[in-house]
Amino acid sequence: MSNSAASSRRPAQTAGDATESAEETAVAAPWVAVVTEKVRSMRYGIVQIVVHDSKVVQIERTERTRFDIPQSTGQR
């Protein structure tokens, strides 16, 4: 690999860099906090993020309630 190709690559992120980037994203994009809250507050379900023109415009949450169904014993 030539030096010019190697120099155009991004340096590898360290764990500290990744954490810092996530914190910057949370501050810069308030939708991250909304998604986090929606995920944490449900047991089963779906959180969808709707994007328009590279911007998050809507967050949808579908929560499911599951019931345990007793196994049949083969009798009707």
Could you tell me the radius of gyration in angstroms? 22 Å
The N- and C-terminal alpha carbons lie at a distance of 72 Å
Q: Which range best describes the helical content: under 10%, 10-25%, 25-40%, 40-55%, 55-70% or over 70%?
A: 25-40%
Number of H- or I-type helical stretches: 3
Textual characterization of the structure:
This protein is 38% helix and 22% strand. It is of the alpha+beta class. The protein has a domain at 17-63. It has a two-stranded antiparallel sheet with strand order 1-2.
Overview in brief:
It holds the Pfam family DUF2292. The chain is α+β, with helices and mostly antiparallel strands and 76 residues long.
Structural key phrases:
about 40% helix, elongated, two-stranded antiparallel sheet, alpha+beta, about 80 residues
Task: Describe how the helices and strands are arranged.
Layout: H1 3-7, H2 15-28, H3 31-40, E1 45-52, E2 55-63
Antiparallel strand pairs: 1-2
